[in-house]
Amino acid sequence: MQLSLTSLALFVGVALANPLAPVVYKELETRQGPLIPDNCTTYASVNAGTVCIHVPYDCTSFYEVQLGETCLSIAAKFNSFSLTQFFKWNPDVGQTCISLRAYVPVCIATLWYSFVPPLIQYPPGAIVNATSTPVPIMPQITAFCKTFQLVGEGTTVDQILIQHGIDIQQFVLWNAMVQVQNPVVWRDYFVCVEV
């Protein structure tokens, strides 16, 4: 007991005698900026465990993802929101839906959003002239696109480039979300193939 009281006294003495400690702390606080609270909602269930989910504060309806479901299958099940909107409401799933987790709830409605389904359902691989912009499109597509292609299952960027006789630099310029080093397009989304 004597040793631990001595250690405690030594620790307190060093802490009180060290005038640089507050300065270093203030410097770190200034460099990091103010702390921004995380809008994480903790969700716990037997199947999912405890997870942190991020959803809009005004979400009015939730759906618990079932095993084997995808973002596309959930959107098709409810037919009341676009995939683009689903990704905005549920940023934790990622823009490719890679982080969608079974037994974890996702937001499927807010008061301010109303879904307008597309008038025409195109088959995968369809090429559409831009009399109007088809939906859904990949984010950050150029506003000057003349022709779109609906990406089908298994379609690669290389296949699209060969089919339309364009190079990767043109494609990335028109579809800014696609990266040159790792060109990936989303299945069931339109990409720009001509300006």
The general outline is elongated
Name given to the CATH homologous superfamily of the largest domain: LysM domain
Uncertain segments:
8-36
Number of domains: 2
Question: What is the CATH class designation of the largest domain?
Answer: Alpha Beta
Q: Tell how many strands the DSSP assignment holds.
A: 7
Mean pLDDT, as a whole number?
79
Helix content percent band: 25-40%
Oligomer: single chain
Strand content: 15-25%
What is the element string, with H for helices and E for strands? HHEEEHHEEEHHE
Note the gap between the termini.
80 Å
Radius of gyration: 25 Å
GO molecular function, one term: chitin binding
Pfam families: LysM (PF01476)
Organism: Hymenoscyphus albidus
InterPro entries: LysM (IPR018392), LysM1-like (IPR052210), LysM_dom_sf (IPR036779)
